[in-house]
Amino acid sequence: MGITTASSTQIPPEQLRPADPKSVRRAALAGLIGTMLENYDFVIYGTASALVFGPLFFPEISPVAALLASFSAYAVGFVARPLGGLFFSHFGEKLGRKWVMVTTLFLMGGATFAIGCIPDYRSIGVLAPILLVLCRALQGFGAGAEQSGGATLLTETAPLGRRGRLSSLVMVGAALGGVLGAGAWVLAQQLPEDALMSWGWRTVFWSSLIVTIAAAIIRAKMAESPVFEELKETVDVEDQAPLKVVATHGWRRVLRVVLMNWGVSTQSYMYQVFLVGYLAAVVGVGTTFIPPVQLAASVAAACAAFITGALSDRFGRRRMALILCGILVISPFIVFPGLNSGSKVVIAAIIVLGYMFAAQGVTGIHMSYLPELFGSRYRYSGVTLGREISAVIGGGIAPLLGSALLTLFLDSWIPIAVYMAITMLVSFLATFTAPETVNRDLTLLTDAEDGEARPVVTA
Predict the structure, then answer these.
(1) DSSP letter string over 208-224?
(2) Which of 226, 204, 230, 267 is closest to 49 using CA atoms?
(3) Closest by alpha carbon to 52, among 203, 206, 207, 196?
């Protein structure tokens, strides 16, 4: 493998030096297993919102209203995410990416375990949904810097020509978290109905403790990002105010990332969360059918994340993201008629493809694309703020808004499909105006621009 430069501008030797293989492997595994826990927590919570939280925590209202209330509690986690992102990205720029990734791990895992300990509404009344919302908020607060931290550390650690495929492991981990989450619900649903509703659902949340401990052991051994270590030698990171820096110099790029990720986040959580309730409440598909399909879809999505990340190394981040976003602008108008057909084969195929394209395909590219868009002074803060703000206006309210549109328009799918298409069209246009970033110099303090010098990796 050879390296040349895309222009006559000198590329710093730090960008041309081979990465330490051991550090790369540990960073890759740490990013993978951390986001595995995050998505495991969110998948089991989202599935519980659709299947059990209504009667357990909101039993005195109608089933549709209970579903709406469950998704409202689910949305609280997304509201807390940018707050957690603001808090932890400050320390990620000052103390390093590793510190944040270890700290948020325990916060997420502890909150998930606590959910399994909450008594239901019949035991403690209104305090039950209050505690549920509080734990959900802590989940979101910890998750606010998780994926961005893993993506930033891996992008800054990976060797040239391999950033896309290695950083995509963050989303491979997220997809595998979906596999574990769906698998946990498949096992739980083998229990009799009364056992599932009394203690079975709790074991699903308690099981997160195993993943938390495993992830903590791995993350404690990983190395800090080499780009951050170099930044400490050139910039006084202890005295800088990261959020002030990103607000002053990077707010335009943060806004672009918000728009690039808005439709992606919206469609991702529509497939992962909303469609579970839609299939059960509107199409009439039995709830035992859904988790096994989610399990298969998550396995396929893990493969898709890695493939799209690797393809972005070869064909460019921007080009690959535009192809997938373009497909997802049109797909909602095909998806809902397919779901309403009632054919389990068609439904399974739609969910699998939705997970592959919407849930993990684009985000597999974003894991390297978004960090490369920012300068080194506020990369962690910029990626975190952009992704988490878009998560609130996208994934956070998507299941809630989908349920509201379903109620308002008397079970019509058309307004929901229009909503999904519009958000993705915005992401397509924002990506269309973004620069290409493959192999850019990550030590630069400034944001990416078209035409800047980039090393070109040749076979």
Answers:
(1) HHHHHHHHHHHHHTPPP
(2) 204
(3) 196
Count of beta carbons in the 10 Å neighbourhood of residue 394: 26
Spatial distance between the Cα atoms of 81 and 395, rounded to a whole number of angstroms: 11
pLDDT in tens, 316-373: 999 999 999 999 999 999 999 999 998 999 999 999 999 999 888 999 999 999 999 9
Write the DSSP symbol of residue 458.
Answer: E
CB atoms < 10 A from the CB of 84, how many?
A: 25
Distance of CA 80 to the CA centre of its chain: 14
Q: Is pLDDT above 80 for 18?
A: no
Between CA 18 and CA 3 the distance in angstroms is 11
- Residue 373 near residue 435, CB atoms below 8 Å: yes
- The conformational region for residue 9 under phi > 0 = left, psi -120 to 50 = alpha, else beta, is beta
How far the first Cα of the chain sits from its last, in Å, is 5
Domains of the chain from N-terminus onward:
19-226+237-451 (1.20.1250.20)
